[in-house]
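Appendix C. Worked example: Transposase
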Amino acid sequence: MVKRSVTVKLQPSKEQEKILFELAQATAIIWNKMAEDPARGVQGTLERVPDGDPSNLPANGEG
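Step 2, the predicted output written as structure tokens:
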């Protein structure tokens, strides 16, 4: 039996894109709050997206 895979790039609608952006922002806030508490063992911080444009973030995730 041959296994095959297909990669499909999906384009979210404007409304879906807005929701995904808000979810990413909320995730960054929660992560940063957890990172402030060393007892939780979370290291590093996530940055909020500058001026709402994800293309402004560094490609390697550092910033």
